[in-house]
Amino acid sequence: MGEWQRKHLLGLKDLTREEIEVILNSAQAFKEISEREVKKVPALRGKTVVNLFFEPSTRTKTSFELAAKRLSADVVNFSSSGSSLVKGETILDTLKNIEAYSVDIFVIRHSVSGVVFYLSQRTTSSVVNAGDGQNEHPTQALLDMFTVREKLGSLENLKVAIIGDIYHSRVARSNIWGFSKFSSSVYVCAPKTLIPKYFDNLPCKITYSLKTALDQAQVVIMLRIQKERMKERFFSSQREYVKYYSLNEENLKFLPPQALVLHPAPINWDIEIASSLKEKVSPLILEQVNNGLAVRMAVLYLLAEKKSYEVVD
């Protein structure tokens, strides 16, 4: 038996392999519910979930909102624009004022690393990290892992290549921690300027060669170039980046036939992935979105109910 005892989900770094499996196994059950004609269940009836987003989001925010509603929870969506924050209210005061409505779970996104942890230590509610700065985005990594396990049957001893804007990616960090706990080899690949020096201390291998990263990789995670976060130039030109790091028909040949190509989206076509591959890779990327709903339903349910589930050996 695997049992979920945590009050919060702040990242994958501190989770055990067994805890990750509890979430993935629970997500499988919720995915089956989502395939029924009646997709709503009363699991969180009477619970209140607040999406507290301090930076823009479309997919993650919508996914958490729909996940909570499918579990029959009451949902409140908060956006920092137009809130009392513009009048000088602190983030903590904002959380405390909303917490006064007897909130069960806060789903929090913020542009600064560590803010979600800071808030989690100052609330009686459970907290889910929906992405904080350049730290972690645990539910995105969990849905990536769920997709891989569903398609390949296992997360064990895989070669996983993460390619793109590693520097700014919280998705990359969560996936490194997640996949490495299943004895998978994680390669990160980007221009030298887009891989922080401290990555030498993470459970991953660093390469600046796309061919080396792709060679025999069963899983490829392409990351968006986050231009909005780049206050300085990280590579000489977009054309040069595309030449050496874009996934196209030619370098796709380095992958085995059953390899999976994932992307957290939104995709900059013809930068991270050639548009000629759209029909090949888009269906799986959209399936990731669907799997994200099941994963987030599982996370909300486990935090609210703290139930135990069978863990796959």
Q: What's the CATH H-level homologous superfamily of the largest domain?
A: Aspartate/ornithine carbamoyltransferase
Shape category? globular
- Summing up helix and strand content along with how strands pair, one would put the structural category as alpha/beta
Give the number of domains.
2
Mean pLDDT: 92
Distance between the first and last residues' Cα: 10 Å
Percentage of residues in strands: 15-25%
Biggest β-sheet: strands ordered side by side in the sheet: 8-7-6-9-10
The major β-sheet equals: 5 strands, parallel
Helix content: 25-40%
State the name of the first-level CATH class of the largest domain.
Answer: Alpha Beta
**Radius of gyration from the CA trace?**
19 Å
Write the CATH fold name of the largest domain.
Rossmann fold
Number of strand elements: 11
CATH structural architecture of the largest domain? 3-Layer(aba) Sandwich
Q: How many DSSP H or I helices?
A: 9
Low-confidence stretches are 307-313
SSE succession: EHEHEHEHEHEHEEHEHEHE
Fold and architecture overview:
- It is built from nine helices and eleven strands.
- By secondary structure, the protein is of the alpha/beta class.
- It folds into two domains: 2-137 and 290-304, Aspartate/ornithine carbamoyltransferase (Rossmann fold), CATH 3.40.50; 138-288, Rossmann fold.
- The chain has a five-stranded parallel β-sheet with strand order 8-7-6-9-10.
- It starts with a strand and ends with a strand.
- Mean pLDDT is 92; it is low at 307-313.
